[in-house]
Amino acid sequence: MNFLENIFVALRSLRANLLRAFLTLMMIAFGIMALVGILTAIDQVIYSLNDNFSSLGANTFSIRPVGQGVRGEGSKRGDVISYKQAIQFKSVFDEVGATSVYLGCGGSKVVRYKDDKTDPVYNIAGIDEQFLQNRGVDIEIGRGFSQTDALGGDNIAVVGRDVVKKFFDKNNEAALGQQISVDNRRYTIIGVMESRGKSNGNSEDESIYIPIYTAKRYYGSSNMNYRIEVGVAKQELMEGTIAAATGAFRPIRGLKAGQKNDFVVRKSDGLVQMIKENTVSLRGGAVAIGLMTLLGAAIGLMNIMLVSVTERTREIGVRKALGAKNKNILVQFLTEAIVMCQIGGFVGIFLALLVGLGISWFLGGGFVMPWGWIGIAFLVSFITGLLAGILPARKAARLDPIESLRYE
What pairing do the DSSP bridges indicate for beta strands 185-193 and 116-117? Predict the structure, then answer.
């Protein structure tokens, strides 16, 4: 018999023992579902987290002097990044990555509006027109800073939701155009940020942003450091953009060839990377669960195939009497085992995709078709069928044709 005939014979055999075949198929299907479904679910979680963190500014890196806020970089601190250096780098590098400049002007500030005031919990900082975009912060009402605003030095501000909640009874529209006071300086509100809550102890809702040049004028000094942040469109471009940024910033810092960098580049995707690294053990556990389930399915399939060989002993004898060789019988029974596993694998993949779709729907992210895991699932199904069928197939091939014909 040729390959297609073996497949048709295998399908007829499955149809002849439908209930037994169905139970075996479902064992294999659940094993594949456990293997592929969990791996797909892990991929969906990582994809969703990466997508969400990207919108929160995870695809950014910052440039800071050596030793600033980072342990283990040596005792000597690099010179602060001046306003001139930051703006020069921005003008050079802004076409490569979305470059923003930030100046922290202090926390624990009291904000005043008319005769009312807040507790000293607010942060004020100077930013340019790219900063909110790099941080993934949206403007709920009004507008953010333009390039003209950032370098113009006007007394304007973009505020967090807590300012509106405190002074304007949560009415965003009422806040626009009003003047608040911080450190006895008045700022006109031009925009209100969407509520973001707290992250790492900081809250955008308790932040007040003013133009970077305004911050320089009021809070800048020779020892104040301006932080540079660069947003990257895709995570895959991160390393190349960091290398380009390092090369562009060295001459701005006045470093000569052979001199060590007196600044460091810090990526903000550490949490995503940590999650990806920790999922290695999860993947291992998923593979172990799937393989144990498939081992049980393989043992069950082997048992069923041995029973099938016994039930079809007379049929085997007839085939041998008609000229079938041991090799033909071996291939026939191996084909039956492999076909059964491949059908079970197909069902398992379908169930696994449903699991992945459910996870992506629950997380509210897009679904990524796990072509790699699907290919592995078909390969594992093939190997399972081969291993489970080899012993029954050899037993069938070695049956004596005369004894087989006499079998009742």
Answer: unpaired
